[in-house]
Amino acid sequence: MFNEREALRLRLEQLGDAEIQVMRELRKERQDIYSKLRELDRESDPAINKKSSLIDLASAAAEELKQSQHAADKHPSTKTPSYTIFQSKTTIHREAALNILSRHEEGLKGIKLKTEIEKETGFPIKNMTTFMKSLMKHHPEIKKPARGHYILHKEKEF
């Protein structure tokens, strides 16, 4: 009969052997990949494979960004969104909600507001009640006078 301790020791040895075998296979595959890359480097144009420094790459990316901004300034699109690429979905939703509520002085029902926000931003709102509670916390000028009805109270200027 096998002793449990002996069985565990035997299994540990098997795991060690398997680990060594997997490491050898990975090392061999890595060497094959490196040799294939070296072969491709020898075949291709050396000017293309010249390694650029990080500073060169960053300056090239900055130059491309400037050129694309200049092109966008010269040819503005008909509808430019009021948000940038780097804003979160929630921020985009909040801006859209404020814009929509400011256009409707009488306010809107929550479901209508939700569909208009989603249509304007292109992103779905998962829970409208939670979204509006958060929005009202950030913008106290938004009120909920009735169930499911939201309105933007503007301060009157003198």
What would you say this structure looks like, in words?
The protein has 158 residues and is mostly helical. Among the domains are: 1-44; 89-152, Arc Repressor Mutant, subunit A (Orthogonal Bundle). The protein is 63% helix and 7% strand. The protein contains 5 helices and 3 strands; from the N terminus they run H-H-H-E-H-H-E-E. The protein has helices at residues 4-43, 54-74, 89-103, 110-121, 128-138; strands at residues 108-109, 142-146, 149-152. It has a 3-stranded antiparallel sheet with strand order 1-3-2. A hairpin with a 2-residue loop joins strand 2 (142-146) and strand 3 (149-152). Helix 3 (89-103) crosses helix 4. The longest helix has 40 residues, at 4-43. The protein is flat. The chain starts with a helix and ends in a 6-residue tail after the last strand.
Which residue ranges are poorly predicted, with pLDDT under 50 across at least 5 consecutive positions?
none
CATH class of the domain at 89-152: Mainly Alpha
Give the distance, in angstroms, between the N- and C-terminal Cα atoms.
97 Å
Quaternary class? single chain
**CATH architectural designation of the domain at 89-152:** Orthogonal Bundle
Category from helices, strands and their pairing: mainly alpha
Number of strands: 3
What does the overall shape look like?
Answer: flat
- SSE order, as H and E? HHHEHHEE
What value does the Rg take, in angstroms?
31 Å
Strand neighbour order, sheet with most strands? 1-3-2
Compute the average pLDDT: 82
